[in-house]
Structure formats: C-alpha cells, structure tokens
Amino acid sequence: MTALVEPIPAISPARDDVADRRHDAHLRVYIWQVPVRITHWVTAGAIVVLAVTGLYIADPFLIPPGGDVMGTIRFVHMAAGIVLLASGLLRTIWLLTGNRWARWSAFFPTSRRQAAELFGQAAFYAFVRRHAPRVLGHNQLAASAYLVLWFLLLVLTVTGFALDGLLGTEPGATLFGWLREWLGPQTIRLIHHLAMWAVLAISVFHIYSSVLVDHHERNGLVSSIVTGYKFFTRAEIDESRDGGPDVEETAE
C-alpha cells in the first residue's frame, strides 16, 4: 500500500517576511521644505487680512467711513499687501532652488503624463474616478490652480498699489500712474475686486481638495504643510509620477 503524504509547505526565510513588511510599511518622506511651508502660511494669512480689510474699505459696514479708523484699515491692508509681495518673491526664488516638489517643473505640465493627470485628478474630485493619480507632491490640477492663484495675486498686488497711488502714496503714485491713465480708477477697482473673489474661490476649493485627498489617501497631507513630512509605502513611492527608487525614507 502506498501512503499518501501531504507536501510540506515551503517556508520562506524570515528575512523575506521582514522585507515584505518593510515594503508595505509607510515611510516618512520629507516633501515640503521650510520656505514652502513658511510662504504657504504667510500667504494664507495675508489673504485673510487683505480680504477682511478690503471688504471694509469697499463698504465700511461697522463704522462710518473716514477718520482714523479708515486710515488704520488702509494701512493694515497695504502692510498685508507688502507681506504678500515678499512671500511671493521668496516662493519665486524657491521655484529655482527648491527640491523636486518645490521647483517650477512640479507646476508646469512639461510631460504628457502631467497633462493627462489634469483630467484624472478632476474626475477624482468630482467623484467620477475612484482613485486619484499617484503623486507625492502636488497633483497637476492643484499645481495648475496654484499658477492661476499666483497670477491673480500678482494682479491684486499691481492693482492694489495703483489704487493706493490715487491718494498720492508711493510707490503706487509714480510707479503705476500709467495703469491709471490706461484703464481708469473704476476699471482697476473692478479688476481688483473680481480678482479677490476669484482668489477666495480657489482658497475654498484648496481646503476642500486637501481634506478630501487626505481622507482618501491617509498620507498626512493636511499635517504635512506644518511638519513637511508625508507617508507612503515603497510601492507608492516607486509608482508615483514624481517619485521613483531614488526617493529615500527620511530618518526619524
């Protein structure tokens, strides 16, 4: 009689189990450098101050217009504009000197994959697509929105100084006199207001999309703009458009 012998399952080496767990573990990756985080929060704070003071300048709804209060509000408004301008200049410098997630190439769709990502990410935000395109830093739709945002902030800065120049204040009085002659104060004021509402709309969408992606991917997106770190598996890093095998885990 021939005995039936069950095959003994192969036992993989312990080191293979460790390697598998390591591959599935979330790695700590330093994405947002200090200048990126600083300019993000400085810009956000400046936008809030500019929006509140700008609305009051356009329609002084608490105290009758004029007097010391309006002068103070105008001063705070222009000071916030100067802070915004300084933050923008620092971020522009970092477009040339930052890491791969901060440089200009992360924002402009220079490849076919980046261009296709625009539609894939839009479909994810609209709940048409279940999974978002794999990226470590900014997805291309968010990056394109940032380009529009920076352009609008530039428009706000120029038109703001031009309007301030109506009171004889420098540098707006001299530097942007040509703009007032070309468009006229009322048109400049209209552009200034429309640009501000567009900035606020983009800001609301930015908050919505950040919370949505953070909840879906659970990689620390929201907290990363404070700490600088996001968390990915090795497979996610290798599959990402802006990742690859050269991205290393950051030591604790």
Brief overview, please?
The chain has about 250 residues and is mainly alpha-helical. Helices cover about 65% and strands about 5% of the residues. Strands 1-2 form a two-stranded antiparallel ribbon.
Report the sheet with the most strands, covering strand number, pairing sense and barrel closure.
2 strands, antiparallel
**CATH architectural group:** Up-down Bundle
- The stretches of 5 or more residues where confidence is low (pLDDT under 50) are 1-12, 16-21
Mean pLDDT across the residues is 84
- Counting DSSP H or I runs of 4 or more residues, the number of helices is 10
Biggest sheet, spatial arrangement of strands: 1-2
The secondary-structure element order is HEHHHHHHHHEH
- Strand tally: 2
Strand content: under 5%
- Shape descriptor reads elongated
Structural class: mainly alpha
Tell me the radius of gyration: 25 Å
Helix/strand layout:
Elements: H1 14-24, E1 26-30, H2 34-58, H3 67-97, H4 112-125, H5 140-164, H6 172-175, H7 177-183, H8 185-217, H9 221-227, E2 229-233, H10 234-239
Antiparallel strand pairs: 1-2
